[in-house]
Specification:
Elements (H helix, E strand, L loop, with lengths): L1 E10 L2 E10 L4 E5 L6 H9 L6 E9 L2 E2 L10 E4 L11 H8 L8 H14 L15 H14 L4 E5 L7 H17 L4 E5 L2 H7 L3 E3 L2
Parallel strand pairs: 3-8, 3-9, 6-7, 7-8
Antiparallel strand pairs: 1-2, 1-4, 4-5
Helix pairs in contact: 2-4, 4-5
Length: about 210
Amino acid sequence: MLSLENIVIYRDDKPLLQLSAEVAKGEVLTVMGPSGAGKSTLLQAIAGQLQAPFSVTGQIKINHVVINEIDAHLRKVGIMFQDALLFEHMTVGENIAFAMPDKAYKNKQLKHDAINALLVAVELDGIADRTVNTLSGGQQARVSLIRTLASEPDVVLLDEPFSKLDVALRSQIRSWTFSQLKARNIPAVLVTHDKDDALAAGGNVIEIL
């Protein structure tokens, strides 16, 4: 689970955001508020990517372990952004493989099978060898999701990942994303301006000013 205990984020030593929350496995905490309120900065703090002039106090815990001083690449926190941010020079399969921890797979065949299983989960079986620039926006969003899941994160952060999708596609990708997180018992924090996103997430909602 993810615990945010007495978190205060500062900008130039002035409090920007204050909150406490717990996110159980498979649940999504939604954080809403206007631009500049510190929503994305909160995600950066959880991911270990906070930079000056921002700073954070309080304890960030994953599975009861305080991670404040742990380097970003060791926190096992996955992030999805507004853009898919796939590697255009790689195939779909290579994009997913890039995120996978090598020690989890004894050979290439096991990794290949795992990639295909992830693609099947979001109804994209058979496209592992395609280049990402041949994919639609919705397909790229789904590949971005499973690349995040392939890294085997303990927590997933969602920084308005659905905002650039059209209305029909947005609902579909949103459902896929939340169902995959729930199936894998991964706690997540969603930042959004869209109340429909919060409703679909189904978890607690924190509104910041």
